[in-house]
Amino acid sequence: MKKDIQIYPRIIEKMEDWPIHRLSDDRAAFIRDIEDTTFERLKSKKLQDMVDAIVKTIYQERIRIKESPWKVDPPNERSFWNKISKRLITKSLDRNDSEAQTEAEDILRRIIHRYSEEIVGTFKSSTFRFAQRFLTVLFNRLLNAAVDKSLASLWRGRRQLYERLNVVGDVDTVRRLFDHGTVVIVPTHSSNLDSILVGYAMDQIMGLPSFSYGAGLNLYNFGPAAYFMNRLGAYRVDRRKKTRFTSKRSRP
Q1: Which of helix, strand or coil describes residue 191?
Q2: 93 by DSSP, 3-state: which?
Q3: Cys staple from 103: which of 16, 30, 91, 185, with CB 3.0 to 4.6 Å?
Q4: 68-77: long-range contacts (C-beta < 8 A, 24 or more apart)?
Q5: Are 219 and 205 in contact (CB under 8 A)?
Q6: What does each C-alpha distance from 86 to 4, 18, 142 come to in angstroms?
Q7: CA geometry: angle at 74 spanning 72 and 76, to 5°?
Q8: How far apart are CA 16 and CA 247, in angstroms?
Q9: What distance in Å separates the CA atoms of residue 58 and residue 111, rounded to the nearest whole number?
């Protein structure tokens, strides 16, 4: 007996109207907003506290570059932090005057901008549509074959695939939440397929727009993965960075 499958209509029909698409179209403004918010929070501290945070950041970043370099790291990593360090020394930011304050704030902005550009991804409609087709084929092969243990099941259609995706809960409530604000999905992360599979079910069955997912920067060392994540709205997370500008502990 076949399972009765409810496929929900899309809550936002045009992909160009999806929040993640509009955010990517206005990526520069989004980054400026992140930078301004972060800068205002950090510059409200005393000058010496700001300088101490910059000095500690330079120290930690130099250790990271030396002890745990990755292929995905920008080629100018070392030169960037060397220039920041040199500027910090030559401008004598230990002075407590307006010139030192201006220099410290400019250095602070440069560091924040570098981190913001690294974190924020993009979203490309063409790549997303390709991923929809590719994942339909992939999950059809994996899930049908895993259940039926038969080579013939590898070639079953989309309906059989949807019968393997068990979406339960108050879907209508989740869909209505989009009328009220930003929706955050928190998968249990029991496997590396969580975000992909959950995202696919939300797109193909629940009719939800695509979400932005956190992706470890180490995954970008693999070329094909980097290509797709860069174009599907993922934001980059570098767990090596423990500085005050990237750590959760820096939040008020």
Answers
A1: coil
A2: coil
A3: 91
A4: 68/240, 70/217, 70/218, 70/221, 71/221, 72/217, 72/218, 72/220, 72/221, 72/226, 74/118
A5: no
A6: 67, 44, 54
A7: 150
A8: 33
A9: 10
State the Cα–Cα distance between residues 161 and 178, nearest whole angstrom: 27
Task: Note the pLDDT tens digit of each residue in 193-250.
Answer: 778 888 999 999 999 999 988 888 988 988 888 899 889 999 999 989 887 666 544 4
**CA pair distance 213, 199, nearest whole angstrom:** 9
What is d(CA 138, CA 179) in angstroms, rounded to the nearest whole number? 33
Q: Which of 20, 93, 81, 83 is nearest to 52 (CA)?
A: 93
Q: Which residues pair with 235 in a beta bridge?
A: 214
- Give the C-alpha separation, 100 to 88, whole Å: 10
